[in-house]
Write a structure and sequence with these properties.
With about 220 residues, the protein is α+β, with helices and mostly antiparallel strands. The chain has three domains: about 45 residues, no CATH class; about 35 residues, no CATH class; about 110 residues, Jelly Rolls (Sandwich), CATH 2.60.120.680. About 15% of the residues lie in helices and about 40% in strands. The strands form three sheets. The protein has a five-stranded antiparallel sheet with strand order 7-6-9-4-11, with no helix packed on it. Strands 3-10-5-8 form a four-stranded antiparallel sheet, with no helix packed on it.
Length: about 220
C-alpha cells in the first residue's frame, strides 16, 4: 500500500497584488494626514473634518481674547489682546495709561474775581500725556460761560481743540485731562451776569506751570 505525499506550497503575491496593497496604504496615509494630522497638528483643515470633530482646537495656542477700550487722551479705540492662560502679563496697547513720575503732583487753589461781563483765561502748561484733575465753582451758584480748551503756538494762531463748552453757562464743573499734545490747556471764564462773581478753581496734576492771563 503506497501513500501519496502531496506538497502544499504557498504562492507568492503577484506584482499586481503588491501594487494594489501599496496604493491602498498610501491612500489611507493621505486620508489620515488630511483628516487628522493636518487639523490637529498644524490647524490646516481643507475638508472641514477637523472643525467638525474638534481636532482643529488641538492646534490652537492656549489664549483667550478680551476686548477693552483705550481712553487715553480721549482716543476711544477698541482693541483686542490675547491673554496667555499661563499668567504672563499682557503688553499694554497704550503704555501711557501708567506714568511713573519723578516729582510729586502739584496742587493749586485760586479765586478768580470777575466784574460784570468781564472775562479771563487760566491755563495749565502740560507736556504730552500728562494729567490734571480739576474742579471749579461759582460762589452763590451763579452761572458763568466757560470754554475748556487747549492750544500750542507752533500749530498756528487759529489752532485749538475744545474739550467742553457751555454757552448758556454753568455754576460748577469738574473733570480730568490727559494732554493730547504739549501746550496750554485751560479755561476761559466769561461773566454773563450783571453783577460781579467769584470763582474758586482747584487743579491737581503734573503741569509745568499755571498762566493767569488776567482780566480782559
Amino acid at each position: 500500500m503506497s501513500e501519496n505525499n502531496s506538497n502544499h506550497e504557498t504562492e507568492a503575491p503577484s506584482a499586481s497584488n503588491l501594487l494594489k496593497a501599496t496604493v491602498a496604504t498610501l491612500i489611507g496615509a493621505i486620508i489620515l494626514l488630511v483628516l487628522v494630522v493636518l487639523p490637529a497638528e498644524y490647524g490646516v483643515d481643507p475638508t472641514g473634518f477637523g472643525n467638525l470633530t474638534g481636532l482643529s482646537d488641538l492646534a490652537e495656542e492656549p489664549y483667550e481674547t478680551v476686548v477693552f477700550t483705550d481712553i487715553i487722551g480721549g482716543n476711544e479705540v477698541v482693541r483686542e489682546v490675547e491673554i496667555p492662560l499661563f499668567g504672563d502679563p499682557v503688553p499694554l496697547p497704550n503704555p501711557a495709561v501708567f506714568q511713573d513720575q519723578t516729582e510729586d503732583a502739584r496742587t493749586i487753589s485760586m479765586t478768580i474775581e470777575l466784574g460784570a461781563f468781564e472775562q479771563t483765561e487760566i491755563k495749565t502748561v502740560l507736556d504730552e500725556g500728562k494729567v490734571i484733575i480739576y474742579n471749579w465753582q461759582v460762589v452763590d451758584d451763579k452761572k458763568v460761560y466757560f470754554d475748556f480748551h487747549g492750544h500750542e503756538e507752533s500749530f498756528g494762531p487759529d489752532f485749538f481743540v475744545r474739550y467742553k463748552e457751555r454757552q448758556e453757562g454753568l455754576s460748577k464743573s469738574s473733570g480730568s485731562l490727559t494732554a493730547p499734545f504739549y501746550g496750554e490747556h485751560g479755561w476761559l471764564f466769561f461773566n454773563i451776569n450783571e453783577e460781579p462773581i467769584s470763582i474758586t478753581l482747584n487743579v491737581t496734576g503734573y503741569y509745568n506751570e499755571i498762566i493767569d492771563y488776567g482780566i480782559f
